[in-house]
Prior knowledge:
The chain has one domain (2-77): Ubiquitin-like (UB roll) (Roll). It has one helix at 34-40; strands at 2-7, 23-27, 50-53, 56-58, 73-77. The mean pLDDT is 95. It is mainly beta and 83 residues long. The termini are far apart. The longest helix has 7 residues, at 34-40. It has a 5-stranded mixed beta sheet with strand order 2-1-5-3-4, with no helix packed on it.
Amino acid sequence: MNITLKLFSVLEKHLPPDAVRNQSLIEIADGASVGDVLAAHGVPLPLCQIILVNGVYSRPADVDDVTLKPDDVLAVWPPVAGG
Length: 83
C-alpha cells in the first residue's frame, strides 16, 4: 500500500531520493506501523518530536502502536529550537 511520508528540517535527509518539497509517496507493507516506516528509512526516533498521521498527533512513545492505512499522510518534525 502507499502512504505519503513527510520529513522536515534535519530529518529530510532520510527521505527517498525522489522526494519533492519534503515529501515522498512510498510503498509500505500492509499493517506497517509508524515505527516500522521510521526504522525502514533510518529516521532516529529520539529526533522525532512531533508526529502526525493525517494531521492527528501521535506520541513518539506510541509509534509501534499506530498502524498506517492506505493513503495516510505521515509527517514528522524534530525538536524545535530557536530564539
